[in-house]
């Protein structure tokens, strides 16, 4: 094989790495991490800190964060504020390869790359996020998402939805369709509806957003309902499943959404489809019939394929939600577990935390916190730990939570991306 096929430029010329078996510096075990999001970057940096050699494979030269992307859609910040490169990750000692993993060969402990090369590993960590189920809603496929963006993977879809809302005439209707659980970021659609309502109230006061929901209950529901009643009584309507909110089909060309309760022809349609683990997880045998990857809750090692760990949104982590905070916590636990397993030590049972802030307006936010522990083959909520923001908090408390949420976002992105 030629040198060109065996080598790949990393981060536009910062470094380059051979795509044969990675060099084992001073005999270190080789760890390969697939996916450069919150979970993947966390585990890679932690493994380096623990003295292990790590190669991170990520197809994009930049990462666009889903947390805070709703604020981009609502015109509260530019998309550059949620976009990061991997230069800081490289400076931390992680070898970053800009490429795509096309296959995992578990028996050979090797991953195949689009470039034609491969990487061997002692342990593999897969943190690939989610895939949209474009087969789940009649009429809604990847082509339809160019007219009715899902914007549930941040980046070009985020910018598209932002532009559509900004271009909409005053008096236009925005419809958001929300799937049944599980999906990435359970409260995310309701934060999005809130911030779009804020934008409409401020810039297009004759407009409105309707949320069509495939369920009757959702995360932080009392807090969102209080916020909507207080802030957006004329600009936001939620239609539950029992009231006809489940989406039946779409006609993207005609901008039509047919729900159980009726037909909608909005100016802007944000269709969030059901989700599952990406195709790579099925190819490798990691995902089950339900579409997610079951894991050992102590080590995050796949219960189906030994030697491979699965983090973040693609994992079936029991009661722990699919969030950036969760992926970050899981990455730290997984890194320590890998270090222990390679050293012949039994990993300790972890306690993991998730905290999720939601904005209802620039100066109005609330949060939920949870603590999770292993029980049998799942992570379960620790009774009496965590909780919701108070439903009757004063405006100054809501404003302080908005500040805290922004501080969390700045802190975690600086920690990960430098």
How would you describe this structure to a colleague?
The protein has ten helices and 27 strands. Mean pLDDT is 94; it is low at 1-25. The strands form nine sheets. It has a five-stranded parallel sheet with strand order 7-4-3-11-22, with helices on one face. With 418 residues, the chain is an alpha/beta fold. Helix 6 (188-203) runs parallel beside helix 7. It is globular and about 65 Å long. The longest helix is centred in the C-terminal third of the chain and has 23 residues, at 395-417. The protein folds into two domains: 3-129 and 277-348, FAD/NAD(P)-binding domain, CATH 3.50.50.60; 135-274, FAD/NAD(P)-binding domain, CATH 3.50.50.
Which features characterize this protein?
418 residues, alpha/beta, FAD/NAD(P)-binding domain, 2 domains, five-stranded parallel beta sheet, four-stranded parallel beta sheet, 10 helices, 27% helix, globular, disordered N terminus
């Amino acid at each position: 094989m030629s040198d060109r096929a065996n080598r790949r430029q990393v981060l536009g010329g910062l470094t380059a790495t051979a795509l044969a078996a990675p060099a084992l510096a001073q005999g270190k075990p080789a760890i390969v991490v697939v996916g450069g999001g919150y979970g993947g970057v966390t585990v890679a940096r932690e493994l380096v800190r623990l003295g292990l050699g790590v190669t991170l494979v990520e197809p994009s030269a930049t990462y666009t964060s889903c947390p805070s992307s709703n604020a981009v859609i609502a015109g509260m910040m530019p998309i550059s504020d949620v976009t990061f490169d991997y230069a800081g990750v490289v400076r931390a000692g992680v070898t970053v390869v800009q490429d795509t993993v096309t296959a995992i060969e578990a028996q050979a402990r090797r991953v195949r790359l689009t470039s034609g090369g491969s990487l061997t590993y002692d342990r593999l960590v897969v943190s690939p996020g989610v895939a949209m189920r474009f087969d789940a809603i009649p009429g809604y496929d990847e082509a339809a998402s160019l007219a009715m963006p899902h914007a549930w993977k941040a980046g070009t879809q985020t910018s598209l939805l932002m532009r559509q809302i900004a271009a909409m005439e005053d008096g236009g209707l925005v419809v958001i369709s929300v799937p049944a659980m599980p999906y990435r970021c359970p409260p995310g659609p309701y934060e999005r509806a809130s911030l779009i309502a804020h934008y409409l109230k401020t810039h297009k006061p004759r407009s409105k957003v309707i949320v069509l929901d495939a369920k009757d209950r959702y995360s932080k529901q009392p807090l969102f309902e209080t916020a909507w009643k207080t802030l957006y009584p004329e600009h936001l309507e939620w239609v539950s499943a029992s009231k006809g909110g489940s989406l039946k089909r779409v006609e993207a060309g005609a901008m039509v959404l047919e729900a159980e309760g009726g037909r909608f022809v909005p100016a802007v349609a944000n269709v969030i489809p059901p989700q599952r683990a990406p195709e790579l997880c099925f190819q490798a045998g990691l995902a089950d019939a339900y579409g997610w990857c079951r894991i050992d809750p102590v080590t995050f090692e796949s219960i189906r394929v030994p030697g491979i760990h699965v983090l973040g949104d693609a994992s079936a982590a029991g009661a722990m939600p699919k969030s950036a905070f969760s992926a970050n916590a899981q990455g730290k636990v997984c890194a320590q577990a890998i270090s222990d397993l390679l050293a012949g030590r039994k990993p300790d049972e972890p306690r993991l935390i998730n905290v999720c802030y939601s904005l209802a307006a620039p100066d109005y936010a609330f949060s939920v916190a949870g603590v999770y522990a292993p029980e049998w083959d799942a992570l379960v909520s620790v009774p009496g730990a965590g909780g919701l923001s108070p439903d009757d908090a004063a405006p100054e408390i809501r404003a302080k939570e908005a500040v805290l949420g922004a501080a969390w976002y700045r802190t975690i992105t600086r920690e990960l991306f430098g």
